[in-house]
Amino acid sequence: MINIKTFAQVREVTQEAGFSLPLEKANSTVADVKVTLRMRAPCWGEALDDGVLCAVNQVLCDDSHPVAEGDEVAFFPPVTGG
Amino acid sequence: MGACITSTPLTITAYHEALQRAVPKAGAIVTFTGQVRDYNQQGPISGIHLEHYPGMTENALTKLVTQAIARFSLLDAHVVHRIGDINNYAPIVWVGTAASHRKAAFDGACYVMDLLKQSVPLWKKEYQGEQGVWVQTKASDDHAAMAWLKESPKGEEK
Predict the structure, then answer these.
(1) What residues in B contact A81, CB-CB < 8 Å?
(2) Strands B28-35, B91-99: parallel, antiparallel or unpaired by DSSP?
(3) Which of B81, B117, B121 minimises the CB distance to A76?
(4) pLDDT tens, A23-60?
(5) Least Cα separation, residue A25 to chain B (angstroms)
(6) Where do the domains of chain B lie, and which CATH numbers do they carry?
(7) Which of B14, B30, B49, B157 is the most exposed, having the fewest neighbouring CB atoms within 10 Å of its CB?
(8) Are A20 and A2 contacting, i.e. CB atoms less than 8 angstroms apart?
(9) What is the reported pTM?
(10) Contacts of B91 (CB under 8 A, 6+ apart)
């Protein structure tokens, strides 16, 4: 299982702040996780569009980054602090 | 060196005095306070809400301050960012940098703010009455951050 977290618009669009998700296969990547999430519900397709960022274990990464059992995978929009 | 997130009002004077006490021999201290504007492009706003990613936000701020200290040879640097509901005109973020000379202190403060707006997981929602709208990233913020990232840090220039 991996732990999915969402923030800001991604949380509001999906109405899911966090949940566990089984890894579909060994040697998964962020791209694989996105495919699984898009199949979860139509709102995930919308949430993952428009340049959404991803962090694995709280480090920003791209779609090719590996995802392993127990990882925390977060999705959120570009940041707007300050 | 310090970086923290708080849901309570910022105490600017206390932060400044703490920085002075930490580096009493500094030749320059520069501070920046970002505050809530009472308008956006659509008109007046009544306040904002700031969301963060617990853990990652604190780590990203700490990394940013550490980088600024190394890059500009700062004697010390601090950043405090507020989260939660914030009224118009209230401080959102405070940055303080201390150095032997003013240019390093100014550059260090600018660097922290420019990179904070691009790399630290914080999200701002502006309220017009009951309706909240998430703030979109600005191209000008990206350009400011990219300018620092393109510029070679001290010591790496040939």
Answers:
(1) 50, 52, 81, 92-93, 116-117, 120-124
(2) antiparallel
(3) B121
(4) 988 899 999 999 999 999 999 999 998 789 999 999 99
(5) 27
(6) 2-155 (3.90.1170.40)
(7) B157
(8) yes
(9) 0.92
(10) B9, B10, B12, B33, B34, B35, B82
| Tens digit of each residue's pLDDT (9 = 90 or more) over B5-48 | 999 999 999 999 999 999 999 999 999 999 999 999 889 999 99
**CB nearest to A81's CB, from B50, B55, B134:** B50
Amino acid identity of residue B28, one-letter, is A
SS3 content of chain A, % helix, strand, coil (to 5): 30, 30, 40
Chain B segment 25-84 residues within 8 A of A by beta carbon are 34, 50-53, 55-56, 59, 81
In the block, which residue shows the tokens 């707007």? A80
Secondary structure (3-state) at A46:
helix
Domains in chain A, start-ordered, CATH in brackets?
Answer: 2-76 (3.10.20.30)
